[in-house]
Amino acid sequence: MKLMKQLLIFLLLFLTIHSFGQFPRVFVDPPGDTVCQGGKVTFVASVSDTVPDPANYIYDYKWLFNNIEIFDSTRKYLVVKNITALDTGNYRCVVSDSTRVDTSFPSYIRMRDQLHIDTLYRYNALGCPSDSNGQMKILVSGGHPPYTYVWSGGSFHQLDTLGVGFPKGRYTITVTDSDMTHCVTREFTVEVLKLHKITFYMPPPDTIYLSNPGITVTIPDTAVQHLDNWNWDFSDKTSKVPNVNPCQHNYSKVGRFFVQLNFTDNIGGQLCDSTIIDTIWVKTIRLFIPNAITPGTGDDNGSLKIREINPIDGKPSGVNLDLSEIYLSNQMFIFNRQGRRVFEKTNYKSGDWDGGNLAAGVYYYILKCHGENGDEVYRGAVTIIRN
Fold first, then answer.
1. CA-CA 20 to 30 A from 381: which of 7, 11, 156, 318?
2. Domain membership of residue 26 as a residue range
3. Same domain? 276 vs 294
């Protein structure tokens, strides 16, 4: 019996090993790199395994530096940047799952002898955020001149010790001597003028309707004082409106439009052009008016509430509507079966009529909606249902 148990355990281990592979094999790229002081190396681990769908198999990753675990290094890649002599040595990746583990061969970082940076500074004044006029100057010493200069990350021109044409951002400069035995790399940041906090307000909602197509946009007084000039562009092929605040505008067609404020910000006498954008939807609408209400129940059918008809499936959707946002004005009339008016309200809002003290039965409504391009009239019957 004991022998049978041992054979069974051995068989299970055999099947497990041959189903999932004996070990995952870990490889790291690059196998090594020799860099300048201040440089960067990115190690990436890959796993060779026999499990089904290894690309989506979940492994645990851990990186070692000179056989000591690196804190919080649990991804398949490891980035070592701003390298100094303290970062030189061997790097390994340990990959494991619940039962297996493998460690990569060591990948190294070595460092060339160091050039000395005598100076690295911005060569011109701060510019506007939209400009690409940052200029950086570097001077080095040591090694074996002449030097080679590589300004990376987006300079438009490289003039050896001078890099020009930088927009705002982070960049690197690498300098190497003539026999490539000495070098140095440094990151630097190009700053720009900080704009004043400019914004504009467009009252909600972000959707309007052709029946009430007007919007009003406003620049706060605290922002206007910093602007040399501005204009509004409502992106509907109408003319831009210069230096009006607040500014009103009516749309004449449906669609998605971008409301743009183009302005010139005066920052200590330096003028910076900029643009901020918001979005507005212009739509048409069909109203859904229910054919029954149940006063006193406390539910959503307790009063006459109006919603939008979904144009795709023809069913009511969305929230109860505020008709004042959709039309310039409206009037609601409700009549009994004898034609006597029992309710009237100008600028009716969803839920304004809950049947009052009227008896259960059928009533008739007329909703007149006045819009920018004419009137719309809704007629129908509504039944009051009382328990």
1. 318
2. 21-111
3. no
